[in-house]
Amino acid sequence: AQRVTQPEKLLSVFKGAPVELKCNYSYSGSPELFWYVQYSRQRLQLLLRHISRESIKGFTADLNKGETSFHLKKPFAQEEDSAMYYCALRGGSQGNLIFGKGTKLSVKP
Amino acid sequence: DGGITQSPKYLFRKEGQNVTLSCEQNLNHDAMYWYRQDPGQGLRLIYYSQIVNDFQKGDIAEGYSVSREKKESFPLTVTSAQKNPTAFYLCASSYNRGGFNNEQFFGPGTRLTVL
User: How many A-B residue pairs are in contact by the CB < 8 A criterion?
Assistant: First the structure.
């Protein structure tokens, strides 16, 4: 079964601390993975995708096929990073996104 | 922002009533989607449409209906058969599958409350 698991509902860190939001997936084919972010009072928006191997707002995510993970990392968290983060997998014949349940990141001053 | 709009922002419904949520996009996207967002549940796919006059059920289609008569519009009707309709509803659109450019763009959402 295709599934995305985000084990932490809430992650709280202090400003300047490293942050890692965990994402594990279950998919039989070659996965395509994304991180979406929803800041307070804003729309859900794409943060990054594994295929681009990019760093956005200091965040990176590496696809680890052996561990079936796509964890989101940032070395020094900022208060403006506080938001809801969703990991998503493109799966199925229609290529629809399968979302995890989300992790709320709270960065304290 | 812009490009994909949803209306109304807030909607209140009495039990037993059908209500329709609007979703419009001017991005020339082929595909459109409806999700339901509940606390602790993430986003769950209700319906999606890859092209005009065609749509498919998602994971939680029961109690919902859609139409796709125009490329720009994908309205969602929440029927009285939906047992727990109070939720935040998100519409999204994207170019069709088949490439790496089909990022989904989301609307601002509609919060539906059943009184």
Answer: 43
Q: Which residue of B has its CA nearest to A4?
A: B42
By three-state DSSP, how is residue A81 classified?
A: helix
| Chain A residues touching B50 at Cβ < 8 A | 94
End-to-end CA gap in chain A: 41
- Alpha-carbon distance of A62 to B69, in angstroms, equals 40
The structure tokens 């199925």 sit at A92
What is the model's pLDDT at position A76? 97
> In the predicted model, is pLDDT for residue A48 greater than 50?
yes
pLDDT at A32: 87
Q: What is the DSSP string of B76-103?
A: EEE-TT-S---EEEEEEEEPPSSSS---
